[in-house]
């Protein structure tokens, strides 16, 4: 439940105590709220600790330290995943640039010139509406970049055109995903083959990653991430289907599923090991809830944890779900 704005730190502490929260060190709690804000910490991480749907009181035994621990857990999770999300973004962007600028037709002629991204004819005509949107966005990028980007200004002044590999450095992840969506089918498939999956599979992944990337960029909570997009089932090389579990789709579990298929085995193992370490550290600081409760909120069912070798350690009496 959101509070009225402009409450002092003393008033914020009073509210927390009135709702049954134990605060062992008021001075440190005030310092923490001063650094990270009541809204980000308390409103952001209290969900699992409320005693009733009315959110008028906390579960018996809830401490400020537990809220702080969950906040730290989420921040660490964000830092860990940011590195890999940026890596995937970079690879996808580079693959788009490469295939748009270098792919040839059956007569060995280049399909596009490097600056043909402003021509609707360069893209999938079955996606004309989105192509128009893409071109408008790219024109706006150029307009804004000419004000401050030296490379854009240089190519514009000297050649009166800007090759895609230069423009791509100014594209957001959302614009990169839209560019991929608008590519010719053969180019979408070529990019997807870099990851060993099909173009419709990669596109469903990118839609979810775009939402997750935006959450990270705006410092939103990561552990309880949700998206309206759903991931399509993957078809393995042997023809079998690799489906994401219903409980995991559209939640943080979907990010694990995506990273499993887009990162190298070594990179994904590091992600899972890091998450296990974070859960271990969190579990020792929880008393009112357990790591299982956090996993449930994240949409990481036990079967998925077993599949990806993510371990949790529960302290207390609640059993793992």
Question: How are the elements arranged and paired?
Answer:
Blueprint: H1 9-18, H2 26-36, H3 38-45, H4 64-102, H5 128-145, H6 150-159, H7 164-167, H8 173-182, H9 185-193, H10 199-217, E1 234-235, E2 241-242, H11 252-262, H12 265-283, H13 291-298, H14 302-307
Antiparallel strand pairs: 1-2
The secondary-structure class comes to: mainly alpha
Helix-strand topology string: HHHHHHHHHHEEHHHH
Bin the helical content.
Answer: 55-70%
The whole-number mean of residue pLDDT values reads 92
What does it look like?
By secondary structure, the chain is an all-alpha fold. Helices cover 57% and strands 1% of the residues. It has helices at residues 9-18, 26-36, 38-45, 64-102, 128-145, 150-159, 164-167, 173-182, 185-193, 199-217, 252-262, 265-283, 291-298, 302-307, and strands at 234-235, 241-242. It has a two-stranded antiparallel sheet. A hairpin with a 5-residue loop joins strand 1 and strand 2 (241-242). Helix 1 (9-18) crosses helix 2 (26-36), helix 3 (38-45) packs across helix 4 (64-102) and helix 5 (128-145) packs antiparallel against helix 8. 33% of the residues are buried. Residues 315-321 have low confidence and may be disordered.
Task: State the gist of this model.
With 321 residues, the chain is mainly α. It contains 14 helices and two strands.
